[in-house]
């Protein structure tokens, strides 16, 4: 029976067809894999090495974004039209007609300011791409796009304009490729580069090298905490208007997305981590952020480590353009980055055009931080006098290495705005937790140029109410009672956990 089947011409023909189809499919998949690998390899080679020396010329040069690898007829038509429009060969009345709805909303002066604006968008993924699309369609005429990454298949659930044909292409190039079809008069400056503090001056330089033409607004749509903090710190120090998008990942409720000051944001992990780092660098408030107040809960998406299935796809370095840049898979509902991106763009449009806008102010707690810092200063002076003895002027000129930003970080972030002893959120103070084993006085130089300071560190302090701090100082710091005499094991464990957090973040000061 088997012999008759194998000798049957129809069976042989069917078997040959199956084998041929299999070979063809394998060849096609192999070709696609090689083509994708080649694209990724070329893109990786174009990105400056993040481990290179700060003096490496490659870090001072933005990787060029070349022409589309295979432009189709529509691409060529759009690019030609864009070249003509940017050269002035485009009827301004047509542009005004396209922007008519914005014009009647913002007024002639507001729209004119928007059309003269220069905006930098750092990060062109889900949030940044939607912000970019909204700004271009609203009339912003100069947009600089900064991103090192390429579009992947998983980008397509949230990217504003990318299609299957764009997979493997730089995100900055894809945005320009698609948006010139709708807004050919918009000038795009593409920067294929990972943002780092050491190249901030170059990335945020004036338009077309004009140092006097600073950005009217900078949009932070970065999902890497290190780069995010460096960008916000630079903008804060340089006085550049900036708005930052916090975490859209794991969020699902668009009604909870809002604009507020970095010092007032809550229920957002990325916002909290960013705020912590900035406070330790002296930036307590003054940066508007888009964040969600949605609480996590049972059955909701959560941040997860890479699964075994994801690891089988390759090492972490093979999963992105830069080695080890991403180490976790973030669950993202495709609609939420769009909500964040349009909220960012809305804020920028209204600010530039001069339309009335208010966002949630920072907590008015500056006076409280100053009072706590004064209490820490007085406590340290008392500690030095108790340990050193001798003349009472030993504390004159004593400096404490703590800033109002440090106070804000410890109270709000490390201790969550509550006493570690009772959880009470009012009349808070900071004080040393343990009795020092030796002197706390640090002397540098000699009189009359001697500098005296305390050896106090963030990790030494604990948050208590004023009444609790007075008792702690009397009975533990200047008395003979131990921590175990005064507090239960759970309280001591909590304090030590909070102090470890403070120690971890101290290195970012």
TrEMBL record:
The keyword ATP-binding applies. It is found in: Mitochondrion outer membrane. Pfam families: ThiF. Residues 101-360 form the THIF-type NAD/FAD binding fold domain. This is THIF-type NAD/FAD binding fold domain-containing protein. It comes from Trichocladium antarcticum. The keyword Membrane applies. Residues 42-75 are annotated as: Disordered. GO terms for biological process: cyclic threonylcarbamoyladenosine biosynthetic process. Belongs to the HesA/MoeB/ThiF family. It is a multi-pass membrane protein. One of its GO terms (molecular function) is ATP binding. Keywords: ATP-binding, Ligase, Membrane, Mitochondrion, Mitochondrion outer membrane, Nucleotide-binding, Transmembrane, Transmembrane helix. Catalyzes the ATP-dependent dehydration of threonylcarbamoyladenosine at position 37 (t(6)A37) to form cyclic t(6)A37 (ct(6)A37) in tRNAs that read codons beginning with adenine. InterPro entries: ThiF/MoeB/HesA (IPR045886), ThiF_NAD_FAD-bd (IPR000594), Ubiquitin-activating_enz (IPR035985). GO terms for cellular component: mitochondrial outer membrane. Signal peptide: none annotated.
């Amino acid at each position: 029976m088997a012999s008759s089947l194998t000798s049957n011409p129809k069976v042989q023909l069917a078997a040959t067809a199956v084998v041929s189809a299999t070979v063809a499919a394998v060849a096609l998949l192999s070709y696609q894999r090689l083509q994708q690998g080649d694209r990724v390899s070329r893109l990786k080679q174009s990105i400056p090495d993040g481990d290179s020396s700060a003096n490496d010329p490659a870090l001072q040069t933005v990787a060029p974004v070349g022409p589309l690898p295979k432009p189709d007829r529509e691409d060529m038509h759009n690019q030609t039209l864009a070249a003509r429009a940017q050269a002035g060969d485009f009827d301004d009345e047509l542009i005004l007609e396209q922007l008519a709805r914005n014009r009647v909303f913002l007024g002639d002066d507001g729209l004119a300011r928007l059309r003269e604006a220069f905006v930098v968008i750092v990060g062109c993924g889900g949030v940044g791409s939607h912000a970019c699309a909204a700004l271009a369609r609203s009339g912003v005429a100069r947009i600089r796009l900064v991103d090192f990454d390429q579009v992947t298949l998983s980008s397509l659930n949230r990217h504003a304009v990318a299609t299957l044909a764009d997979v493997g292409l730089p995100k900055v190039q894809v945005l320009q490729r698609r948006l010139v079809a709708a807004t050919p008069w918009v000038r795009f400056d593409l920067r294929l580069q990972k943002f780092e503090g050491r190249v901030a001056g170059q990335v945020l330089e004036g338009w077309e090298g004009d140092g006097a033409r600073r950005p009217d607004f900078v949009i932070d749509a970065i999902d890497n905490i290190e780069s995010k903090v460096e960008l916000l710190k630079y903008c804060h120090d340089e006085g550049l208007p900036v708005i930052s998008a916090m975490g859209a990942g794991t969020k699902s409720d668009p009604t909870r997305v809002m604009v507020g000051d970095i010092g007032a944001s809550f229920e957002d992990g990325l916002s909290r981590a960013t705020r912590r780092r900035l406070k330790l660098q002296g930036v307590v408030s003054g940066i508007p952020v888009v964040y969600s107040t949605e609480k996590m809960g049972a059955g909701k998406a959560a941040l997860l480590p890479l699964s075994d299935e994801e690891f089988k796809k390759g090492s972490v370095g093979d999963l992105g353009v830069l080695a080890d840049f991403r180490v976790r898979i973030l669950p993202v509902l495709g609609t939420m980055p769009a909500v964040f991106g349009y909220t960012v763009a809305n804020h920028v449009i209204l600010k530039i055009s001069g339309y009335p806008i208010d966002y949630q102010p920072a907590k008015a707690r500056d006076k409280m931080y100053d009072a706590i810092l004064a209490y820490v200063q007085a406590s340290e002076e008392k500690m030095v006098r108790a340990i050193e003895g001798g003349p009472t002027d030993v504390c004159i000129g004593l400096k404490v290495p703590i800033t109002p930003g440090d106070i804000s970080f410890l109270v709000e972030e490390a201790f969550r705005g509550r006493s570690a002893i009772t959880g009470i959120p009012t009349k808070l103070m900071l004080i040393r937790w343990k009795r020092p084993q030796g002197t706390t006085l640090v002397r540098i130089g000699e009189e009359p140029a001697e500098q005296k300071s305390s050896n106090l560190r963030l990790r030494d302090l604990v948050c208590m109410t004023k009444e609790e701090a007075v008792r702690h100082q009397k009975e533990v710091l200047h008395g003979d009672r131990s921590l175990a005499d005064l507090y239960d094991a759970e309280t001591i464990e909590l304090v030590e956990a909070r102090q470890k957090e403070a120690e971890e973040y101290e290195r970012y000061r």
